[in-house]
Specification:
By secondary structure, the protein is of the alpha+beta class. The chain contains 22 helices and 27 strands. It has a domain of about 250 residues: Dipeptide-binding Protein, Domain 3 (Dipeptide-binding Protein, domain 3). The chain is about 30% helix and about 20% strand. The longest helix is centred in the last third of the chain and has 17 residues. The radius of gyration is 25 Å and the shape is globular.
């Protein structure tokens, strides 16, 4: 099939998806960008189906944060990132396009009213809306977009990697910006990365050091602005009445509260007590036990607090105890595997999570990107290509995580762990796991709250039985953020999630280039040439279907590398909230749809009367 025919077939696919073509049939111009080929909402849509376009505005939404490192409203600083991430940049800054909650990897115009690109994806043009403006009234222009790109690349190594496929960014006119893509990096995935870019104002930032934190006034463009800050205690945002984008289809029926307040607490126990006492309105809860047992008290008994579980159809990523492989003895895969045999997930799930968790048996759990226990023939061929010395066992035998019967008697697994430790050069001498240097092995995990304390104490109990000393080191959020950024730990408890269409961001998660980079998500500091090759294939893949077998191959190598002791995931969103909200008739397919809720005045008045407010 020649190139012209390939382009014609692609054009037919995109026409079916509802895209609009410019004069050249090989150029696409559309109100939306899709990575899947299907677009649910046409160019004339007025609002998402999971919102109430007539939702009333008003009231105050109160939330809680466990971070005390709330010290940054600069989205492109590496330092003190908890603040801006905690509040959510969606409330403060607008991006070029906005993700639909009803579709996987589909984006509709926000700052950009349309997107234009050739079917070889060698460049992309964003046509900005001429009515878009900053909160000081000045227009948002193509110069702001180009400035944002260069500022992000210059200030933050994470964004240097994220935008490495761009060769040039230029303004074509006041409201038109063009990005050129490297010849070997072309693909719709890279257009998605640019579409998600959070834009910042050149006239505000041009004389400032954008690599630094800002916990003071910053000029923004989103539906809310920061109005007051008490460092370490409270942040208040107010809805912008004349927000330029309030009537856009991607914003209609959302961001309905006049005021959003964020209070900060030291740990999850205090947060739970504050919620039960009515000090804030809604709580996203990780644990089924916490939802059933933690939400308690007279107000819960009166039905004033509601519990809700919502199926979570999103890819779950990997969640668990992550090993820093640059620290001895965790540089030895046999030691890492031994520790995984000690971890008794079934007992933890039964006694702590009420059997509500599923084992995280993949770095891409709950998605078609997860590798099967026995790889397909296509995946086997890829693995042999990138790792010629790979053993047949990893290709033809099921890869299964250690398991127990949940009784708490995991003696067989502990024996297996001890055998692996012996192969790594350790012996149990007088009840102590002793290394070649004659010293007892001591391990440490760094955490910043007590959420995982119960399961870590169970893990410690198992390690004690084979003679390994295990310490749980508690630090505050500020210290934890800095240690995580600089990979200054032996172990951490972390979650790494992925888009449904993986691409260049995988360098930052698993690539050798991200292993030593401050602020990267390569918490395990993985350096594996075979994984690097797979990431190259993932980036070069022309479409999502082509990506899948390479991701599955990488998943197999990651699991076999024992870089993490996998924990569990719920497959559900668990929320508790005070009965003061109105909600749309249905949820988005992606989850809770928090931003489409509103304050029901009658319910709130009833609550206030009962609570004596």
């Amino acid at each position: 099939m020649n190139f012209r025919l390939v382009m014609f077939v692609a054009a037919m696919v995109f026409t079916h998806a509802g895209l609009i073509f410019a004069g050249d049939p090989e150029i696409v111009k559309s109100h939306a960008l899709t990575l899947t080929g299907d677009i649910m909402y046409g160019p004339d849509f007025t609002h998402y189906e999971y919102v109430n376009p007539d939702a009333p505005k008003g009231g105050t939404f109160r939330s809680a944060m466990s971070s005390r490192n709330f010290g940054n409203f600069n989205p492109y600083s590496l330092k003190d990132t908890d603040a801006q991430a905690g509040v959510g940049s969606i409330y403060l800054y607008d991006s070029l396009m906005s993700a639909s909650g009803d579709e996987a990897a589909t984006y509709y115009g926000l700052l950009a009213e349309s997107i234009e690109y050739p079917l070889d994806y060698s460049w992309v043009v964003f046509h900005l809306r001429k009515n878009a403006k900053w909160h000081d009234g000045k227009p948002i222009t193509a110069k702001d977009v180009v400035f944002t790109y260069w500022a992000a690349v210059a200030s933050n190594p994470v964004y240097q990697n994220r935008y490495a496929f761009v060769t040039k960014a230029e303004t074509l006119d006041v409201y038109k910006v063009k990005f050129y893509i490297k010849p070997f990096d072309i693909g719709v995935k890279h257009l998605e990365i640019l579409a998600q870019m959070t834009i910042i104002p050149e006239h505000f930032w041009k004389d400032k050091d954008i690599s630094q934190s800002y916990f003071e006034y910053v000029l923004t463009s989103g539906p809310y602005r920061i109005v007051s800050v008490e460092p370490g205690k409270k942040v208040v945002m107010e809805r912008v009445d004349d927000y330029w984008g309030k009537d856009l289809p991607v914003r209609k029926g959302q961001f309905n509260y006049d005021r959003r307040e964020y209070d900060f607490y030291r740990d999850q126990t205090v947060i739970m007590e504050a919620f039960n006492g009515g000090h804030f309105d809604s709580y996203h809860i990780n644990s089924s036990r916490m939802l059933l047992k933690g939400v308690s008290g007279k107000y819960a008994d009166m039905g004033l607090i509601k519990r809700r579980e919502i199926p979570n159809m999103q890819a779950q990523g990997m969640y668990g105890i992550v090993f820093n492989t640059s620290v001895k003895p965790l540089d030895d895969v046999r030691v890492r595997e031994a520790l995984a045999w000690v971890y008794d997930f079934e007992w933890i799930n039964k006694n702590i999570y009420l059997n509500a968790e599923k084992r995280n048996d993949s770095y891409f759990a709950n998605s078609d990107l997860a590798c099967d226990p026995i790889p397909s023939r296509q995946v086997q061929a890829i693995l042999r290509k990138v790792k010629p010395d790979i053993g047949d066992d990893l290709l033809t035998k099921p890869f299964l995580l250690p398991a127990t019967d949940g009784s708490g008697d995991n003696r067989a697994n502990l024996i297996k762990a001890a055998e692996l430790m012996e192969k790594a050069g350790y012996k149990v001498i007088k009840g102590k796991m002793t290394g070649p240097d004659g010293k007892q092995l001591k391990l440490e995990i760094t955490i910043h709250d007590k959420t995982y304390e119960s399961e870590l104490l169970n893990f410690k109990k198992g390690l004690d039985r084979i003679g390994i000393d295990f310490y749980i080191r508690y630090v505050d959020s500020t210290q934890y953020t800095e240690k995580r950024r600089n990979k200054d730990y032996m172990m951490v408890f972390e979650l790494v999630k992925h888009p449904l269409y993986p691409g260049r961001e995988q360098i930052d998660r698993f690539g050798s280039a991200g292993a030593d980079k401050p602020g990267s998500f390569n918490y395990a500091r993985i350096k594996d040439h075979a994984i690097d090759k797979l990431i190259d294939f993932i980036i070069a893949a022309p479409d999502r279907k082509s990506v899948i077998p390479y991701v599955q191959a990488m998943d197999r190598l990651l699991m076999a590398g024992w870089y993490t002791v996998p924990g569990g995931y719920s497959g559900r969103f668990r929320i508790a909230y005070w009965d003061k909200f109105g909600m749309p008739d249905r949820l988005p397919l992606s989850g809770q749809g928090y931003d489409a809720w509103w304050i029901d005045q009658a319910k709130e008045e009833r609550l206030n009367k009962i609570l004596g407010r």
